[in-house]
Fold these 2 entries.
Entry 1:
Amino acid sequence: MSQVIRIEDVWKYYDGRAVVKGISLSVNKNERFVIIGPSGSGKSTMLRMMNMLVRPDKGRVFFKDVELTSPGVNPIEYRKKIGIVFQHYNLFLHMTVLKNVMFGLVKVKGMSQELAKKRAMSALESVRIGKNLWDKYPSQLSGGEQQRVAIARALAMEPEVMLFDEPTSALDPELTGEVLEVMKELARGGMTMVVVTHELGFAASVGSRIAFIDSGELVEEGTPKEVLFSPKKERTRAFLEKMWELYKIEPEW
Amino acid sequence: MPASIQAFFPYIHIIIGALWITLSLSVLSFALGFLIGGALLFVRTFSGKRISAIVDGLVDVLRGIPLLVMLFLIFYGLPALGLQIPKFLAAVLGMGLLSGAYQSQIFRSLLQSVSSSQYESSLAIGLDKWGSFRYVIFPQVLRLSIPALINEYTVLLKDTSVAYAIGVTEMFTQSVHVAQALLSFTYPLVFVSLVYLAICFSLSSIANSLYRKLSYGYGVQEYIGGG
């Protein structure tokens, strides 16, 4: 299996406090690598190291055979091959939906307007954003729609891997479904994905591998079955118990 | 005993004739200020704390200098260093420098309305710092700044009258000349005030009507302009 992303003993400090403490892991082609863990455990920071939005203070990051942390390598060149979707969508607020998706194609890939437009349209269609929304601004869209546009924006660049940073955490519960559905389709299409999420249902059904991260450390890693249903470590078990608790429905009347 | 208004009419064209000097002085110094303000915004966005602090210090120093003092410094002070500058250019320089300080303050306050996540996502898509600034950060800051920039321009327009002190024959200077010829200040000064007022009032109305429109979606409506 060929590796797409590998991080080796990465560390990150903020104000002298370590938030990521020597995590190593690798993501293979076509894999859906799901990262779970409590808030503030360093998951997002670690995800941002994978495309060097956050530069590790120690350790190495590889994209395929290229070491992004090497001083001679400019990570900007590789970011266009690594799509990322943020928790708060982060669409460009001064551009219409269509322009948001075209933007990277034109300015980063140097594509012509017509070709970029064609590509953007098909990306938007693939996430089921209809024509009627293409000329709207992000602030006129629902959260779920904005997040799907954000996915289209990343997809249009034809990345080799997609990173998702809690893509549904900012959404109202009734809107998470439409975003998860699009992500499942991507997974079925064979996209290599790294997903930080609290959606254990998604992790169980879509993930090919799960990593549990707590206070900046990789506690446990394995198949969904191993990690979610028979965790070996006490910390994993404690976290999962709390999470499953949320799914339980026990009427109090 | 003030001169009659009929006696003033023949002189109106002298005052109006200097309007274009007033306008070009204000437009040029606004443009210079815009370049300075934009450059300072760029530096502030991308440099470390130390350089930002130097920029802030520079802006504070500039803002602390009265315009009249600034113009005298440039027009009468620089020749002592062997640098003689024509008065119109001296006025543009002085006003432009001070306006640059004010415009950088405008940009700075609105930079905070453009979330850092906008910068993050433009980097994530593969742009470099300059591309992010040019296509993502600056257009948004600029869009939000337009009303405040229009207001800054109206301030500059009125401040051109200070250039009188170094002998630039702009509109106010000419109205003083007319007053001296008429031996009466009333009509020339009331007239010139009305010209300033007409321009500033229309620009401010435009600025106010743009404000709500331009800040839509940024969550800044609540803080400024009521609503």
Entry 2:
Amino acid sequence: MENTLPKIVRKTSPYLRRPKASVTRMMRDVTIALLPVTAFAIWKFGMAAVVIIVLGILSMAVTEYIYYQIVDKLNDEKFKFKNKSYTLYNFSVVTSGLIYSLTLPDNTPWFVVIIGAAFGVFFGKLIFGGMGQNVFNPAALGRVFIFVSFGTMMSYDIDAVAGATALTVLNDDVFNIAVLDNFSLINLFTGIGIPGSIGEMSAILILLGGVYLAFRTSFEVRIPLAYIGTVALLASVVAIYKGLGVWYPVFHVLSGGLLFGAIFMATDPITSPITKGGRIYFGFALGVLTFFIRVFGAYPEGVVFSILIMNMFVTSFDYYKWTNQQITKRQKIIFTTVVLVTIVITIVGVSYVG
Amino acid sequence: MSFTLFATAIISAMLINNVILMQFLGICPFLGVSKKSSAAIGMSAAVLFVMIISSAITYTLYDLVLYKYGIPYISTIAFILVIASLVQFVEMFIKKTSKSLYKSLGIYLPLITTNCAILGVSEGNITNIWVNHIGDYWGGLLIALSTAVGTGLGFGLIIFAFSSIREKLEASDVPAAWKGVPISLVVAGIMSLAFLGLAGII
């Protein structure tokens, strides 16, 4: 009797609709798009970058390998060298490891790299049931974990100038045009001659990867557009309010990990909403959080934090009562109201910061 | 005493000093009533309601009675007694007057009477706000109410997100040993870790 019942096959995300789309193709594309950034990091930092990247990818893959071997052992299965659960074969774990390593500062000790990678992949992915079922982005989780636990150990290379990254300088003195003396916009754009995390510096190479992914339709364009657009919008509002000039929004977009996080981390298909409207709201909320943490918060950079915070609300965006693939007029009005309220809050906050 | 002060109090209590993820109060309803989203919404509405009336009553009690007659040290006992009897009274009142409201709200009310989040907000009101507004009863009361509204909204936001994550996890292939409460605790820990990023905004 039970065999005649129709069986419901539940698929895990990413839910791909496009023709020729598959997880392997998508993850391989992300890895290819990351290659210029990786090459730039290795060219700039030499062995330090190589060690961080190799350790990051290896420790994620090895953690996963050991985990599935133990699971097999507990299920009394015979030892197999290969297991279909390894996400090494569809590049998923390689992508996570590469993204994780590229967000690290160049002076990170080797054991910190290993701890963060193992924590991120185990608590972010494996115990949720593996690929496609995780709630939080493993790379962002590992990065935040070591940032909170080993914050003082991860220093930036201080050969360039003042000994701090552009956003650290900005965090001390929020509206000072003097930051441009040390960090000119063209340097921030090309990534030459500025300190920072090993993969987050060169804006043009990150954008190159983003354009490649957009042409291969391997990622969701709405999220990075909404994300970067929101940060630019809020920074422009602040610039107009304080009379700062056009450098301020451009500086916010180019500096720190914003472009990298928006293009490679926020677009993770598993930890982002399913609907169009949900994705726009997701990107908007990421932008607001990032900008607020940068300008008002205690930490200089808020990209990974805001990605982790918004990951926990992804299932709320996908809640069945208000998910809708069509964007109606009413939703547009609501969204406009939300944007206006955010702008008002920003101006009020800035007037208090001074 | 301006409008931005109240807005700051609401945002601060809602996001930056979130009652669950930053102050670790109200964990029992957070874990107990978050299996279904509908239950979580009802619970957070009840918490918001009780929080507002209880902080108004306790602030008034402290300002006009306990401090005036020199017995502020019994505030904890007095607050517990007042909140518990008040919530029971409100529950009876709702049961008599509105059946539909009782169905959506009333069943959660007895759960919250002895909740630490409610008492925490009341105590926080008198330790943080009251000291700065000695003698200014209405100003302090308004800030206490804004804090209560913000805390209730923050509670609702987090418990709703958590319950929808738990509904998703019900269908995931979580290993047997981690199913149910353990994976929920891991999720709660990661949520708390993420909210550290908001530190220092206000």
